Amino acid sequence: MDQDMINPADLAYQIYQDRKHEAEIWHQEQKNIIDEATSEKKEEILKEYKETYETAKDKILRRIFTQFSQLMKDHVHTITEYATRNEEVSKLFVYLVENSDRYKSKVPKVTINSKTTPFDEDNGLIMSLLRESGETPEKMTIWSDGTLFHNGKFYSAKDNIKLVNKKGEIKPMKIILITKTQLVAETTVEKLIITPQDMLMERYNIL
């Protein structure tokens, strides 16, 4: 078709559409540039924040573990007795013992999957510190709500144990409750309630 025959209105509309399309392309390019710059700045800020956070966290942990280690050296018996009062405190205590030891040595520990209690997983340090303070862990019994420390081992609810009575009869049982005044254990056919007096008089003992 001859260029002279094009309707001016159609030509104007075509020019408008072309310019609109060019403007959209330019706008998208500018948006991409801004997004890229914003993303880079965001990553830069996040990296800087993370480094600052990790540095602050490292200082705080160092201070906490250093103070905890010193407390364990000075008051190990008191802290250990307090730590056995309930499950939450016991977990926190084990966390501090494990991580303060790792923090000082910088040597990662090997994690062994087992069904032992939380304290049994890493009580070597606790036993060592008790002996250094003049205590004999293998002859100690501490009753508390949630945990029993007896003859160098920690026991808590859901632990499987072997009880022996004065007659020498051995009964495999499962602990369902420990308080300051009793240990409740059961099998599928019976339930036993053992008191500190029972342990003291050796009516029952845990193998």
Explain what you see:
With 207 residues, this protein is an alpha+beta fold. It folds into 2 domains: 98 residues, no CATH class; 89 residues, no CATH class. The strands form 2 sheets. A 5-stranded antiparallel beta sheet has the order 7-6-5-4-8. A 3-stranded antiparallel beta sheet has the order 1-2-3, with no helix packed on it. A hairpin with a 2-residue loop joins β1 and β2. α1 crosses α2.
Total count of helical runs of at least 4 residues: 4
Assembly state here? single chain
What Rg, in angstroms, do the CA atoms define? 34 Å
Q: Let me know the number of strands.
A: 8
Side-by-side strand order of the widest sheet: 7-6-5-4-8
Sheet with the most strands, sense and barrel status: 5 strands, antiparallel
Shape: elongated
Low-confidence stretches: 105-119
Mean pLDDT equals: 74
Distance between the first and last residues' Cα:
106 Å
Strand content: 15-25%
Helix content: 40-55%
Structural class designation: alpha+beta
Order of helices and strands: HHHEEEEEEEHE
Number of domains: 2
Describe this structure in a few short sentences.
The protein is built from 4 helices and 8 strands; from the N terminus they run H-H-H-E-E-E-E-E-E-E-H-E. With 207 residues, it is of the alpha+beta class.
Fold topology:
Layout lengths: L7 H76 L3 H19 L18 H9 L8 E4 L2 E4 L2 E4 L3 E6 L4 E9 L4 E4 L4 E4 L1 H5 L3 E3 L1
Antiparallel strand pairs: 1-2, 2-3, 4-5, 4-8, 5-6, 6-7
Helix pairs in contact: 1-2
